[in-house]
Structure formats: C-alpha cells, structure tokens
Amino acid sequence: MNQLENLQARIKYSRLYKTEKVERLYFKFGQNNIDITTSAWFEVVNDNLTVFVRVENVRSADLRDRIREAEYKAEIEKQFYELINNCELERKKTPLNERLRDDIIPVYENNSLRHQVDALRFCCSMKVSALYADTGTGKSKIAIDLAISRYEAGQINKVLVFLPVSTKKNFQAQIDLWGKECPQIVWKLIGHESMGSSERSVFEALNFVDNETQIIIDESHLIKTPTAKRSKRIKMVCEKTSYKLVMTGTPVTDNVHNLYMQYAVLSQLIIGVRDWKKFEEKYLVMGGTFGDEIIGYKNIEHLMGLLEPYTYQITKEECLSLPAKQFLSHTCNMNALQREYYYEEKQLLLEKIQSDYFSVTDIFQSFTCMQQICCGYCRRGNEREYIGTNKFSLMHNIPVDEQVIFFCKYIFETELIVEHFGRDKCAVFTGENPLERDAELADFVSGTKQYFVATMQSGGTGLNGLQEVCRRIVFFSNSFSYFHRKQSVGRIDRQGQKSEMFIHDFCTEANIDDKIMRNLRRKGNLADEIKKLMLDKTKLKKYVDSL
User: Fold this and answer.
1) Strand 325-332 and strand 501-508: pairing?
2) Paired residues of 294 in beta bridges
3) pLDDT for position 85
4) Which of 487, 494, 525 is nearest to 164 (CA)?
C-alpha cells in the first residue's frame, strides 16, 4: 500500500484519482455552493506528501480565491500533521532512488542520434537527473525530447528553463526546431543572472511553476555556489515540482564541491545532508590562514556512489566523429614598459609573502595584474593605463582572410582587436553589449562580419552555429581555468564541424603566460595549484620568484 492509499484508508469519503503517471487523493474540505467550488487533494511532489487546494470563486477577478486557498491549506496541514508525518515515515523506508524512479515512454524523432536516445531513456527512468554532456553533443534536444515525453505521459504541461541570458535565443531556436510537434507545451526561459538580480524574475518563476512543470537548468555549473543569491532562489523554485533536469558540459570547474548545489536543486535528499555546512563537514578538508579555504576532500567514493543513480554522462569521444584539432602557440616579447611594471608587481607579491600577511586572494590579484600587464595595460588606482602589446605582431601566423574567432579574458583586449581590424569587420560579443549580441552573432554566421571578438565569459558558453562557418580560434589571452578554455573550444569543436580545426594561443615571453599554458595543458585549475603551494611558504616563494 503506497502513502496515498494509506491516507485514503484513514480519511472518510476520500477518493483516489489515478492515471498511468499521475496519482492524487481528493477529500472533502472547505466551502462549496453556487458561487464557490473547493477542491483539496494530496499528491507526492518533490518527494514530499503535499497538500493542494483550489478555490474557484465566480465573484473573483480571475475566478480564484487565493486568500482562502492559503487559509485552507494551512488548516489542512495543521489538522493532518500527525497523519502526514506517519505516512512520510513509512514511505521513506523505501530507498530514495526507488522513490524517485520513473518509467515513461521516451518520445523522439528518427533523426535522433544513438547517444541522444540512450540519454533520453535514462532521463525518462528518473524524475530527477543530471545530464553531463560535452559541448556539441546535442543535450538541448535531449532535454526538449524529455519534456515532450513527460507531456505525452500526462505528467506536465509546461517547462521552465534556467539558462545564461546569452544563450536564450539559441535555446529558443532549439525549442522551435525540436518541439514543433508538441506546441501544447508552454515554455518559459529565465536567465540565471536575472534570478540573482531581479525580484520580478523570481516572482515570475514562482508563479509559473506548479506540480505539472518540468524544470531544466542549462549550464548548471553556473549555480554551483550555495551562498549565491541566484542559486538559493533557483533551488526555492525547484522545490515546487517533482520533475527536474540539470545539464552542463563541465559539472566540475574546481573540484567535487561544485556538485553540491547541482544535486541539491534536484533533491536535498540525494547527498543526504541538510545544508552546505553539513556537506563541508562531511566531504571537505578546510584550512588556510583563517580555516575557510578548501585544501582537501574526504569520503569521495561514498559521495560518488550517492550521485551515480541520477547521473548520465556523454563524451564527444564516445559518440561523435569530429575532425582533428591542431594547437599552435605563438610568443612575442614584452616592451620595456611592460617589463618594468611586471617586475614591480612581482616584487610586491614577494614582499607580501615574506611578511606572512597574505592570502590566496592576494596571490590571484597579483597574478591577474601581471597577466593584464602582459595583455597591454595595467591599473593605477581607478585609472587604466595602456602600456602597449606586441601581440598584434603575431597576426601573421593566422590566415586573417578567413573567418576567425578571437577569445579574450578582458574586455579591454576586445577593444584593441576591434580597433585593429575595424568595427565594420568585427562581431562583438561581450558583457557590455547584451542587447546587440544576437545581431552581432548573426552577422558573423552569415559572413557579413569576418571576425567574432568575444570574452570567454560571454561568448565561450552555450553558443551554437559558429562551427558551421569557422574552424579557427585565437586565444588572445587565457583563463586560469581549463573549464573556460574547454567551453570556448567547444564553440567550434562540435557536431556540424566539417573541417580540421586550429586553436592558436597568443602569449608573451613572461613566465606567467608559460605557467598558465602549462596548467591548461594538464587540464587543471591554477587555483588548485596555488592552494597546494600555500601549504609550503618556501615552495610558494620559489614559484613566484620563477615568474
């Protein structure tokens, strides 16, 4: 006997409404007359026995009496507290992965690739799942097919997608392409950034989602921080429905602690800890000057075992046959002013280390400053001083007569590149032109503009179509993290690419550039390397001295 059948045996005149995939227990409660109709029922939502009340009032503006609904719901929860609690205790004797199991028929078109069908079958077998698929493997189609499958099974009638603002148009195009056979589904797209900055977006999401909604979180690594406002708000919205999918090409950008929030939005019970503090105590080793830095990990095999039933991974190597990639590095000298400022910053960092009053943040601020000097500018207080760069002398190493993508770490560099080639030849995609970016991208894809100039943060994630017109990327500067580089290369290294690809790195003679490239070749994160060095001051000093 399941929990609703258990409740039915205890509530007089209750009736069980059951279809193939939806189960509700209706019972008598509240006012019913010629003007007012009250419906009350129990349903399992987000793995919790939940009370629902709907009061229809012909005298209300929208035919709903929401004040009375809230009053009735509170009264039911109070009166039925012991009964609900007893049923929940009995139900939770069943393992979580069995309670979250699903079994709907996957709906897909004949043009779906084998790996997409396999992933869809997995997602259809669980109410919640994490789809970790490399860039270019078609995870958007899998998510759209999942929504259609749930609609056909009678589970949902609408879908809310959280995603980067810069990719909304691209995802909508995927919906128009793959979802056209099921126009009855209502779709709503909200940017991750909007959930952190806009109260209106939060209210829209909360009002949109109900127990018949599928939530999709695209590029879920962007909600990895448990203390971030956007992460907490998205989690709050996710608690209103049972059906959730997170997906990204790079679930871990630093280490396994990045996984906590991605699974917490699926279900707080998966990892089995109440909050981030408990996760920290169970799985992280903390240290550093103030004891607030992650310096190690523990119980990792246990954690991976908890996550495994809800996780499906796709790699390019397993499912796609893509052309080869060539990686080419080009180096130029620094000018005299760059050398002077670079040496000054290095000496300041060495002095901080010698004084013992320094942190990981201090080191990365200095590293960032040294890299900016290599890129051609530095900051003096609030002023930005252009000190020149010889990187443009490296342009003869690339065929500038074909379409080329330029990725930069800093907006200042994009301005230099646009000035070099001319604005009429450059499609600009940065955080400073959000309203024009879609048109700029379209100009590059159509061939109207020859160069796509973007920051990795804005243009390196979620964009599709570049692979069909371009085979060459130039990293004018690089991120400290392999994650950003992998995402950026994925703009052309994806399904639809027909030509051999060329990845160019423009570097200077400065050892900071050499350290960054060595780290990226190891597919590492410079932050992890520095945190290890922080444990041994002598090694750290030697490392900085070698820059």
Assistant:
1) parallel
2) 286
3) 84
4) 487
**Structural element, H or E, at residue 485:** helix 482-489
Q: Please state the three-class secondary structure of 150-193 as a single string.
A: HHHCCCCCEEEEEECHHHHHHHHHHHHHHCCCCCCCEEEEEEHH
Instruction: Say if CB 349 and CB 342 are below 8 A apart.
Output: no
Rounded to a whole number of angstroms, the distance between the first and last alpha carbons of the chain is: 68
* Closest of 364, 327, 298 to residue 515, by C-alpha: 364
**Average pLDDT for 519-545:** 79
Write down all domains in the chain, each with its CATH number in brackets.
Answer: 3-94 (no CATH), 99-319 (3.40.50.10810), 325-545 (3.40.50.300)
Tell me how long the chain is. Answer: 547
Among 67, 5, 70, residue whose Cα is nearest residue 42: 5
The residues facing 38 across adjacent strands are: 55
379: CB partners within 8 A, 6+ apart: 369, 372, 385
What's the DSSP call for residue 498? -
Residue 313 is given by DSSP the state: E
User: C-alpha dihedral over 361, 363, 365, 370, to 10 degrees?
Assistant: -170
- Following CA atoms 136, 194, 187, 462 in sequence, which dihedral angle do they give, to the nearest 10 degrees? -10
The tens digit of pLDDT for each residue in 465-491 reads 899 999 999 999 999 888 889 889 999
